[in-house]
Model the fold of this input.
Amino acid sequence: MVTPEAKRRVVGFWRAGHSISERRACRLLNLCRASCRYRRRPDRNVQLRSRLRVLAEQRRRFGYRRLQVLLEREGVAVNHKRVRRLYREEGLSLRQRRGRRRYRGVRVVPARPVRVNQRWSMDFMSDALADGRRFRVLNVVDDFSREHLAAEPGRSLTGRHVVAVLDRVARQRGYPEAIVSDNGPEFCSRVVDAWAHQHGVQLRFIRPGKPVENAYVESLNGRCRDECLNEHLFVSIDEARLELERWRLDYNGTRPHSSLGNLTPEEFAQQHRVSHPVSPELVRLSVA
Done:
């Protein structure tokens, strides 16, 4: 593609060599005079480019749509098409991580929750420290508000650890009506079963080999691995616990969710609590 600067140089060469006007030189070269007289305007998006690069560096796994939401929260009124263009020009496009193809069978879609604490989901993730030692992470999520309730790492997490984490979360927000999990030995243990019976919590186990039936926490696991575990190298469990907690708070209070209308889980839960207040008696019974 010939740039306007190159066109101007060619026209200037013809005018100097043949002593002709600009109009005649453009006619002979079949060029538009407007393109020869074009002067590049100064970039009006310098500050926007700079802020977009800063946000993309802080949120390296965010695409342009989620970055635009963060810009709007800062008071920057910008069209999504401009953000996409600048995002591509700055070379910030995400590298897609391809997964292996899987068999697409009939999916079982569970009933969607309609209130906070109606249903939680929990699952384990696996990762490794810098020295190669493996550790696991217990994730707990509220299926309605998408709030990340707990991210507990450990070398050996048993049913007693699961109960301790659930009690810690329940002291802050009350006990759920049901919890969805896979058939792992920690979730099927007598300790967890006794805890659920004591607090009136229904345990729902998905079918073996059907993680789609636990889609809410599986989606959270993917975001946690992509934006936290894959972005850091942990030296110890304590360091992993601090970084996971930092990411959990950011996930709940800052990260926009497209499934929630680009609200954060905390904002979505607060709106629901305002429009559907919970009676004090129910709160008292849930934490008793």
In short: The chain has three domains: 4-37, 46-89, 119-287. The first helix runs from residue 4 to 18. The CA atoms of residues 70 and 220 lie 20 Å apart. The radius of gyration is 28 Å.
